[in-house]
Specification:
Length: about 210
């Protein structure tokens, strides 16, 4: 499937009806989702036939894209029942059978699912307002869950902090792309319509590269 084709499918994914500010509910735009997933698939081969986890899956934009690119199974995790209801409707409309979803607080996922996924993809809450540190909690859990790699979107202003943490955790981190993120109009407290955000994709090669390189 071509990237443009994926993007046009993703434009049909329904998003949050009443986004909850406290949960930082804003969807990844189809263009960003398609670029991110296409790169993970084409450049890193971390989607096709892989077991994928999508942390803070919301209405399923990333999970649905991964499933369309041939994931073996993609499991979405989100705390919010309303978001998962929309996710479920989206999955039915796209007639996808390689997707599942779990309602839970990602921060309380138990260690029993450690290394149960090949790849983790996510657009986590940025943790900027009420949820300070949430982005890092999601990252830490994602790295525990993934056997091979974690691909995650973050604000560019947090890059240095994340790099420091990656060094501390002995994880190799690459910034794979920088994108301009359009915040939805529903978040009225944002003065600017767009904000510079980059996505980092963190390669986690614990066995192959025990030390950062
Ligand atoms: C930025 S949105 C991303 C939504 C979706 N992944 C996408 O890319 O369109 C963050 C998501 O994280 C969920 N979330 C926030 N806190 C959470 C938590 N503690 N556990 C699980 N999900 C959480 C929100 O409900 C929301 O759906």
């Amino acid at each position: 499937m071509k990237r443009k084709e994926l993007e046009s499918f993703l434009q049909q994914v329904d998003d949050f009806e009443k986004p909850k500010l406290l949960l930082e509910q804003y969807p990844t735009r189809p263009h960003i989702a398609a670029c991110m997933l296409y790169t993970i698939h084409n450049t890193y081969d971390d989607i096709e036939n892989k077991v994928i986890g999508d942390l803070g899956c919301g209405c399923g934009m990333l999970s649905i894209g991964a499933a369309m690119l041939g994931a073996g199974l993609c499991v979405g995790f989100d705390i919010d029942e309303d978001a998962l209801e929309i996710f479920n409707k989206n999955v039915k409309e796209f007639e996808l059978t390689n997707i599942d979803m779990i309602q839970c607080n990602v921060c309380s996922l138990s260690e029993t699912i450690s290394k149960s996924f090949d790849t983790i993809i996510m657009n986590p809450p940025f943790g900027t307002k009420h949820n300070k540190g949430m982005d890092m909690s999601f990252l830490k859990i994602a790295l525990q869950m993934a056997r091979a790699a974690v691909y995650s979107l973050h604000k560019s202003s947090t890059r240095e902090h994340i790099q420091k943490k990656a060094d501390e955790w002995k994880i190799k981190m690459d910034v794979i792309a920088e994108l301009r993120y359009d915040l939805p109009a529903s978040y009225k407290f944002h003065k600017k319509k767009t904000e510079d955000v980059c996505y980092f994709m963190e390669q986690h090669y614990q066995e192959k590269l025990p030390r950062r390189c």
